[in-house]
């Protein structure tokens, strides 16, 4: 397992959830939520500042795919977002990781924790980012390889 803090980003049209790991790469925790969309044109700068401030060794971006694994418009948007972020945080690597069910799992965990739907709304994106990051950490621990696809600032991705 590689050492160092990792960030995960769950991209949404209204909010971007952010989670971070401990330096040992063992445990993911929700960090914050950044406003998205036209109301926050500086969101990429905020995310780059978070990556720098936490001394992240890697940033994971959720890739929304269908149950069959197909990619639609949301996946294309996530790929574009990841490429933009990669350009801002370079040389810190950015990786795309499948995020199926992360929001559902986050809602379930928050519900079990006693939060009603109104209380979950502002924090579910950060909780979903934590679910995504924990899955990525667990996958790396199980395989010995970094999870997902490496993103290049030009927008391409490789395994």
Describe the structure.
The protein is α/β, with parallel strands linked by helices. Helix content is 40%, strand content 23%. The chain is built from five helices and seven strands. Helix 3 (102-112) crosses helix 5 (124-143). The mean pLDDT is 87.
Helices and strands in order, then pairings?
Elements: E1 6-11, E2 15-21, E3 28-35, H1 43-53, E4 58-63, H2 73-89, E5 94-98, H3 102-112, H4 117-120, H5 124-143, E6 149-151, E7 157-158
Parallel strand pairs: 1-4, 4-5
Antiparallel strand pairs: 1-2, 2-3, 5-6, 6-7
Key terms:
single chain, 159 residues, alpha/beta, 7-stranded mixed beta sheet, 5 helices, 40% helix, globular
Briefly, what is this?
The chain is an alpha/beta fold.
Q: Beta-strand level of the residues, as a percent range? A: 15-25%
The class by helix and strand makeup works out as alpha/beta
Count of runs of 4 or more consecutive helical residues? 5
Shape: globular
